[in-house]
Amino acid sequence: MTKLADSVCTKVYVLNKSSHDFSGAMRYGELCYLSEGPINRFATNKMFRMFAEGLEKSHKDDYILLSGLTVMAVIACVIFVMRHKRLNLLIFRAGSHTYAERRLDLRDLES
Fold this sequence. Notes:
By secondary structure, the protein is an alpha/beta fold. The chain has helices at 44-54, 70-84; strands at residues 11-14, 30-33, 63-65, 86-93, 98-105. α1 crosses α2.
């Protein structure tokens, strides 16, 4: 598990705890689930509240693991970017059953 400079463990925020095996992402940090079970794709306010609370203690070096509904990913990513001015993604590679790590520094977009 990755350690940050201030001895806080890096976290991997998984959008929804489902039947998928996310154990391969554990090499990037502790798995933290933002929701569990079926989610109504139109319940965006509910998603926002859940994800805002779940990401409240996130750190700039944590990850969002892309999975599940697109609307869930959009909401989680927006919250993370608003908090940290950056976005760290884990994207599943189906062929090799591994994750691609992508980091975006969005401070340049500030006016």
